[in-house]
Design brief:
The chain contains ten helices and no strands. By secondary structure, the chain is mainly alpha-helical. The protein is globular.
């Protein structure tokens, strides 16, 4: 996997720091007072930005919790896998590559994001839309790799199965918060790769 590109200019670095500060303060407030009780104004004040600056980075409070920074990296790493690798094996290799290249504090932040989403009914409801969108994004990359259209039902079924395995791992992590989420995802994908026979 190619190394992660860092913002080059001062302006880009400042924007990245501001976005990260908004998210960090939002999650601190979600922890301290709950998602529902936290307002955009409180997040903006804690991050020392104006509400209008908040909205330049996130359309609303929900998007602070739902934006998954790892998804684009996973798709890029999947696209970079050798074509001879089977599709689920390539997804697993992409997962390992991204995890190896992601700092521990960023993985911890993502785990916290997922915990907030799973604990908040209105956010859980929106994750269905996000999961469907991810099925289509993954189908596009699978289609590129296998030379078929993205709306081919077999391509969509494979993409849906991969996303479903990830959702199952997330559900398992709710029941066992001490488990390593990414190990659960990899195990679920491994079961899918070898064929699930119960």
């Amino acid at each position: 996997m190619p190394p992660r590109s860092e913002p080059k200019g001062l302006r880009e670095r400042k924007k990245a720091r501001t976005r990260e500060a908004i998210r960090d303060h939002a999650f601190r407030l979600f922890r301290e007072q709950g998602y529902g009780a936290t307002t955009v104004e409180q997040i903006a004040e804690a991050a020392e930005v104006s509400p209008s600056t908040f909205f330049r980075y996130f359309p609303n409070k929900e998007d602070v919790a739902l934006t998954d920074d790892l998804d684009p990296l996973l798709l890029e790493a999947f696209r970079a896998q050798p074509p001879e690798l089977g599709q689920i094996a390539a997804v697993r290799a992409a997962l390992h590559a991204v995890l190896a290249d992601t700092p521990a504090e960023e993985l911890a932040r993502d785990r916290e994001r997922q915990a907030v989403v799973l604990a908040t009914p209105e956010l859980r409801a929106r994750t269905l839309d996000a999961a469907v969108a991810m099925v289509w994004m993954l189908a596009e990359v699978i289609a590129e790799r296998v030379g078929r259209p993205a709306d081919d039902v077999a391509v969509l079924a494979l993409a849906g199965a991969v996303i479903g395995a990830a959702i199952a791992a997330f559900a398992a992590s709710v029941e066992n918060p001490d488990a390593d989420l990414w190990e659960l995802v990899d195990s679920a994908l491994g079961a899918l790769e070898t064929g699930i026979s119960l």
